[in-house]
Task: structure prediction
Amino acid sequence: MTILPMPMRYGLTLGEAAKLANLELAIGADGHQCVAVSTSPDPAGSYFRYDFLITRGGLNDYPKFGVWPDGYYMTVNEFAPGFIGASVVAFERVEETYDPSQYSFFAPLSQRRMGRLRESVYHQIKAKRYSLISYVSSRATVFPGVRIGENCFILEDNTIQPFVEIGNDVVLWSGNHIGHHCVIQDHVLFTSHVVLSGHCVVEPYSFLGVNATVRDQVRIAEGSLIGMAAAVTRDTEPWGVYKGNPATKGDRLSSELDF
Result:
């Protein structure tokens, strides 16, 4: 049995946090455990997602979860190929079992609080002295000269043109177009089918909704929330909420929204 640590600092009680588990199998490859923890008491709402490496070159099977005041617990049976033993570790204390000098972390969380929650977890991982890896789908098109930071999550059908710079802790969901010479700074989330034209800058904590379009040489200011199908033709203001075609700024700040 193996039990992995998971951060517990999301403002939820243990009883409120619903848990989902999915076993990731690949014959001859490493065994991973995917875990999701709800962001609210609503099980149909959004989730924080984690991917833990459990068994190098083997299989983790029959995951079971438990709750205790000091953390979430998970047990699995490990095979590599035969049963290889048991250990118990709290989710809060990952570094005590998985040496940061030998393991890396990957935590592509949601955009809750305009990316500032994901940023908090990112810094907690860094404080534990882990390096962070990025995932770039094999079905994404990444041109030469692109630079991608750590803890980035880039899904299928993204087109990232030459000389783009992507910072740390950035999520690009499916099917986005990132034009040449764009800069996407830290803790930004693109949903799907966003068009970012060439020579644009997207500052930290920004969120771009489905089918949003940004014309060339525009600066998306820190904390901007660009609504679904909005067409942005000029620079935005920090923490503004924009919608429409052409996009106009609303009365509320994105930092005031429960988003």
About this structure: The mean pLDDT is 83. The radius of gyration is 20 Å. The helical segments are 94-97, 116-127.
